[in-house]
Amino acid sequence: MNVLTDDEIAFFKTNGYLILRGALDPEGCSRARDMLWASLPDGTRIRRDDPSTHVGPFADSDTNDDVQDLREGYRWQLRRVGTDSQLLDLVFCDRLVAAAEALLGAGTLRAPVVHGMPMGTQGAAWPGGPVDPALGTEGVRGIYCTLPYGEHRPDRLGCHTDGHPFNLGIVGLIGDVPPDGGAFQVWPGSHRRLYPTFLMQYDQPRIPYYDHLPSYKGILHTPEYEAELARVIEDTEPVDCCGEAGDVVLWHHRLAHAAGHNHTDVMRQAVLYDFTKTDLDDCRRDPPQDEMWRDWSEALRASEGTYPAAMDRTQRPALA
Fold it and tell me: In angstroms, rounded to a whole number, what is the distance separating the alpha carbons of residues 67 and 152?
């Protein structure tokens, strides 16, 4: 099944992301929303049928620091359902598998495991740190939500890249997300600029946590990466990947990105998943290649990365 056009492959190669409209099954999106709300304990202040209670931050009584069902501030990250068969059917569907294979190569994908280990099963990556999406995860990252900010006005949005090894990420909207509604934000073209600044093309060195050496822990970035990321933030306008339930963003593993600020009255609801190839462990420690697309599909390697100018508007929804 060939679901991506040559122009779409070219757009992804140049920009590092591609939006697919209506890629998720509507009934599957509805079931995912049901899963999210069913996960709440009785007596929470936030209620599904009262949008006024969706404005963040979470009340102290609703806060939960369990990394598999995190509710804190303006973030709600439900991970314990990540290997539920219905959620895996939603993201590892024929259309998205075909799209991923069009970019990564046919027959190369590692399949998720129904009722396997969800993200967060092994806890945080280090004490007080984030959860590593690659650590024991056998399904989706989870259902990730951003509550409306209300009167809260945060600092300028920054961006980052993910440090764990994977090949291709997806963010799938399971509810409508208007502009400035906390949608996934991407910095077009940053994957080509940041890729050569890493020590390894898919993985990153990590500094262990030591109680008596608290000055540094976690992912180690090169000075070249830090400098280039600062330039990306300064010279590149991010794209707000807002849209309707069922829309999906495919994104390159070295693309600068962020969860957007939510200045609307609608809670952003999305499901996140990482496509990985079966040979990832064989090449994750390789240094960045002169040909950065070495491990991708023949169609993508052959693409010159040129596409009609009209695609810029369809792929920048906040500007369309």
Answer: 24
